[in-house]
TrEMBL record:
Naturally occurring in which organism (per UniProt): Methylobacterium nonmethylotrophicum
Domain (HTH gntR-type): residue spans on this chain: 29-97
InterPro entries on file: GntR_C, TF_FadR/GntR_C, Tscrpt_reg_HTH_GntR, WH-like_DNA-bd_sf, WH_DNA-bd_sf
Protein name in the entry: FadR family transcriptional regulator
Domain of life where this protein originates: Bacteria
Keywords: DNA-binding, Transcription, Transcription regulation
One term of GO molecular function: DNA-binding transcription factor activity
SMART domains per the UniProt record, alphabetical: FCD (SM00895), HTH_GNTR (SM00345)
Amino acid sequence: MREPFAPSRHPGSAPAGAGLVVIPSGRARSNHAEVARSLGTAIIGGRYGAGAKLPGDGELLAAFRVSRPVLRESVKTLVAKGLLTTKARVGTVVRERAAWNMFDPDVLAWHLEAGIDRRFLRDLAEIRLAVEPAAAALAAERRGEADLAALEAGLARMRAAPSDSDGFAEGDLALHVAVAVASGNPFMRSIGGVIEVALRASFQLSAPVEAAEREATLAAHADIVAAIRARDPAAAAAAITAVIHNGLRRHGAAG
């Protein structure tokens, strides 16, 4: 199956635009999912802007070499995710970015494949700042011994792994997920769950390179764990806020 509507670069290659970083998902896909992904990344990557009309069914069927039911299901998927709308006598039209479901795992994954920029990282940080400090404060009040063990395990994984490795990012993610779980609020855990793919990418991009930055990052995460262990909600909220701001600074999306 040809893929004419994906961004014009191979996964993992240099980004097409300044400030963009491409992170391939490596996920296996069906024909329907592949067509949806190809169109989705093209829309998110800017090939089709808001209000643009997609090519007609005949052109898409010839390009993707799939059946009409597969194409129809792919378009329905993108409509459900907020990327497209269908209009009588007009066709299939791209919706404005504000309509996209940014909590949808596929939409987040397609952002990573199309290339994430400072705006995406800033937007992600803003939702984190709205949720994670409150989660950390609740975790300090409600945490149990199992929660502390999970927090310590995430921190230990960060300490054991090189800063530029997947292990460091996975440990970072595990620690933040443990904070959400320790909050005892299922809504906070669910929010963390749906944006895990974006958080993982963010942690990979903001991983410290210099030795001094690494030590400062580990110390900042240790402050989160210590505040939750000490049952100090204000300190826990302040510590996780500082970590988010430091991450923004490292990948240049602050301000």
